[in-house]
Amino acid sequence: MNNTIKNNNNFICQIINKDFKKNKKLSFYTRFPPEPNGYLHIGHAKSICLNFELAKIYNGRCNLRFDDTNPLKENIKYIQAIEDDINWLGYQWNGNIHYTSEYFPKLYEYAKELIKKGLAYVDQSTKEQIREYRGTLNTPGKNSPYRNRTIEENMELFKKMKKGEFSEGEACLRAKIDMNSSFIIMRDPVLYRIIFTEHHQTRKKWCIYPMYDFAHCLSDSIEGITHSLCTLEFQDNKCLYNWILQNTSVKNHPKQYEFSRLNLEFAILSKRKLKVLIEKKIIQGWNDPRIPTLSGLKRKGYTPSSIKEFCQKIGITKQNNLIEFSMLEHCIRKELNQTAVRTMAVLEPIKIILYNLEKNHKEIFIVPNHPNNPELGTHKIIFTKIIYIERSDFKEKYDQKYKRLKLGEEVRLRYAYIIKAEKIEKDEYNNIISIICYCDLNTLGKKPKNKKNPAVIHWISVQNTLPAEFRLYDQLFNIKNPEEKKDFLSYINSESLIKKQGFIEKQIGINIQKNIEKDNKISFFQFERIGYFCIDYLDSKKENLIFNRTVSLRDPWNLKNKFK
Ligand code: ATP
Ligand code: MG
């Protein structure tokens, strides 16, 4: 698996290459700046891969900086989760973890510097007034009545703000730029607001908090970041980013470059909306396998390498588009196709009685764990008179198109014999209890004489079972772009999780049971003909193994893109 940005000729690499041409000694430095207000998702992975991989390619460094300027929304539990997810992806940030809050004292000094230069003022307008005065894209803004306060007055008031002498919303610090700017962001943006909430890092030390735009560029500069990469929605913020750096006495002037966010089919990536899904108990939590958080994907069976492969495949551009979900699935399927152990499981069992076998008939077959990779070894399966097959592999009513087991017709049992269905046994409610079949003992590993090979189905001997739960996932939404919809909750797919009670091969189950007590190692399987599965390490218990379906076997993305 290639974990680096293979074609390092995306537009950001071209910019960096030029920068290196101008300055051979450039000390390349990036950062990943999450807000600790939720878990990381596949969109963040795009940004993480970009920042950390570029640091590798250019012999540079990448910082992890928590952008913790809003104590109302942040929570310490998210900090640990974010660190764990980055490590899980296989990245290590440079040195210590950084926090924007670490720089609050410095940021305060820079704010005072702007005031002293007559470039910032304390505004006591209400939120609504500030909004109204800001104007719109078509109308210019209006100056605040507090805009022309003296430097001394502003200094005094800002200090009062810091001391907690104003209440929330009563005053804020604004940059004095241009209320007529065609960039609305430049119409005297708010730099500091008052929040009387304890901060997870600085506790009760501060009651004024810098806004993102003020804190971000200065934190980048303090850390010596050279290339500050962010998503396209910050394009307009760049003029403010540069204005603040130019008007404060900072030494480093990092450059901001924007790339398009990842939008993924059937997925919600907005943390705010993901929180709604959790609060409304539509999903189990941040690690529900139906959402594309990194912990959800991990639980569903995605590996770090498959996620990196996906990020590499989507590339870095300035075009906003919706990426096919099947492309993400392709990446994990391709990997598991090479690595997952193949075994048989029956999700919805129905009994087969092979009437011509002795009651104690027992054969042991040694079967490969992978058809093309002998290194993965073999395992034993038991063949007996009574076995289970998948309910959906039998059809009672005659259907010419149906190619699996039907009355009077044959199928091959995987690794074993050809059988023919002759009779059905039903209970008083007309439910099938068992199918009575003839087992052709001349067909082990042999093509039937004068006949076509019949379809192959999977099975498990009743003597070789361990009960298990299987969780089959489908998309959480039944429309391709739920993120676009305000009423996204009206598009929930009620069948996004289906649970089945069936059987796995006993020995495989016993091995998992041993591991489950030792560590939470995830095991990956291909249950033949059904899909790729992994053990659900959260809900599984020794006596109740649960498997999550990672992905089905069919690869529509590959079929479509194979010849491109
Ligand atoms: P949300 O809107 O879901 O809250 P966010 O952008 O506020 O997301 P942050 O924690 O601020 O989330 O994001 C940290 C970094 O990850 C930022 O640099 C941001 O641009 C990047 N990022 C977030 N979402 C995506 C995405 N969908 N695609 C690419 N990068 C993303
Ligand atoms: Mg954000």
TrEMBL record:
The keyword Membrane does not apply. It holds the Pfam family tRNA-synt_1c_C. The keyword Secreted does not apply. Residues 340-438 form the Glutamyl/glutaminyl-tRNA synthetase class Ib anti-codon binding domain. A motif ('HIGH' region) lies at residues 34-44. One of its GO terms (molecular function) is ATP binding. Keywords: Aminoacyl-tRNA synthetase, ATP-binding, Cytoplasm, Ligase, Nucleotide-binding, Protein biosynthesis. A motif ('KMSKS' region) lies at residues 268-272. ATP binds at residues 35-37, 41-47, 231, 261-262, 269-271. Its main location: cytoplasm. Residues 456-536 form the tRNA synthetases class I (E and Q) anti-codon binding domain. Gene3D superfamilies: Glutamyl-trna Synthetase, Domain 2 (1.10.1160.10), Glutamyl-tRNA Synthetase, Domain 3 (3.90.800.10), HUPs (3.40.50.620), Ribosomal Protein L25, Chain P (2.40.240.10). One of its GO terms (biological process) is glutamyl-tRNA aminoacylation. It is found in: Cytoplasm. It catalyses: tRNA(Gln) + L-glutamine + ATP = L-glutaminyl-tRNA(Gln) + AMP + diphosphate. One of its GO terms (cellular component) is cytosol. It is an enzyme of class 6 (ligase). Belongs to the class-I aminoacyl-tRNA synthetase family. Monomer. This is Glutamine--tRNA ligase. It comes from Buchnera aphidicola (Hyperomyzus lactucae). The gene is glnS.
